[in-house]
Design a protein that fits this description.
homodimer; nine-stranded parallel sheet; about 10% strand
Chain lengths: ~280, ~280
Amino acid sequence: MMQRFAINTATLGFQCSIEESIEAIAAHGFGGIAPWRREIEGQNVSTIAKRIRDAGLKVTGYCRSTYLPSLTREGLQANIEGNRRALDDAAVLGADSFVIVVGGLPKGSKDIVTARAHAVEGTAQLLEHGKKLGVKIALEPLHPVYTAERSCLTLLSEALDMCRQIEGAVAVPSLGVCLDVYHIWWDPNLKRDIARAGLEKRIFGFHVCDWLVPTADVLNDRGMMGDGVIDIPSIRAEVEKAGYRGLIEVEIFSERNWWKQPVAEILKVCGERLATSV
Amino acid sequence: MMQRFAINTATLGFQCSIEESIEAIAAHGFGGIAPWRREIEGQNVSTIAKRIRDAGLKVTGYCRSTYLPSLTREGLQANIEGNRRALDDAAVLGADSFVIVVGGLPKGSKDIVTARAHAVEGTAQLLEHGKKLGVKIALEPLHPVYTAERSCLTLLSEALDMCRQIEGAVAVPSLGVCLDVYHIWWDPNLKRDIARAGLEKRIFGFHVCDWLVPTADVLNDRGMMGDGVIDIPSIRAEVEKAGYRGLIEVEIFSERNWWKQPVAEILKVCGERLATSV
């Protein structure tokens, strides 16, 4: 039954090599892995890809884009180029999608309108490249607390509007969204927008973790499923009702707690909570 | 020119008595004050009200409601009652509006649907009481980072929908919204929704401060106008284009910085920044 679930390697706190992560995740019976560029770049990507396949794992998403907005046109173009190379790697890995976190305000800027325009322009160029490679692009709207530093794209409705703006209404989209309960659980329009994402066939990924109360650090104090206040089973039900049949991925940034645990313990608890609290 | 601006006493870190705050705020030429219940309750409210009037200050908003959602009906009713008494005080103070922060999930609950229903029910009852007293109610949507613990009401559009749901479309609303740049600056629909709030005559208050990068603590590390990334003049222009002519109120929660400064220094810098960065 764990075959339905994937582990994002960030959950393991980058304590071990990608080879060890692949082995441990497969050994615990999970069906997929989502690696990060820091584990892949500068290595033989084909060899890692083969290792993942041989372990029987799918690659859900490849994490993640360099932030797009820049103070200059040249900076924007450099950011796009960096992501182009990452997309090449995503293709070699056989990733179901390349995850784009668009980026926030460039340092020194208060101009969110231009930041958003850069996000659109960069994503449009990367979509063209992804289509050639056969790699889908998943936009991940982040929680609004990250607007300044990580993502000026926050609402699910906004991400869907952006998909429509860039790709138009198509039967089989190559541009979609990655839904992470941490980022979207608070949204009063969540049910409506998940249904819309399903109708538009744009749900490319679904991530779970939990929102702790209190949260000591909004970046790296995310909770294990069941330890926080998100009604994850409700959101999962909406996502599945919307037609999503892909893997459900665990992504937990937890400097204070889980990253201090051994990898095997983290994976064991993930398995338990996926069975009871998701 | 400072007459156009008001100081929320939280900005001063509750370092001094309400009487001293009134005197200092008036002495610096500001036109209004927004006191908190902790400064008022258990005291002679009429005496404080007279003192504020005598100092030539208006009372913009009275801060703020007890959180409404509860695990039980009895708890909800008790929360409403507490706010009813605060509304009585708001009337004595001559406050332009009573500020409602609706509250988040009751401890132990993951049921955001019921929390939202409690917010609506409580606000509806308080609106009736406010109308009798001649005190307007200002719903303050908070930044989504506060959903769990402080406000399941987050989007401006959601707050306007709630006003409409409770009061209907009326020519002179008694239920409106309080806009705080800290809570709404990131919203991709901000321009649209401010215009709507204006058309519906529901802008009852406008608060300024800034979003610092990095933010050490999302509750009490807010910035002085100009020190963060919010394009405050743009938002102010939208709010004024939407017809708002009320006072602009400074509300800064700053445990690490401003609350450690003398009251006179805080007020001096507020005055400078209101002239240059708002």
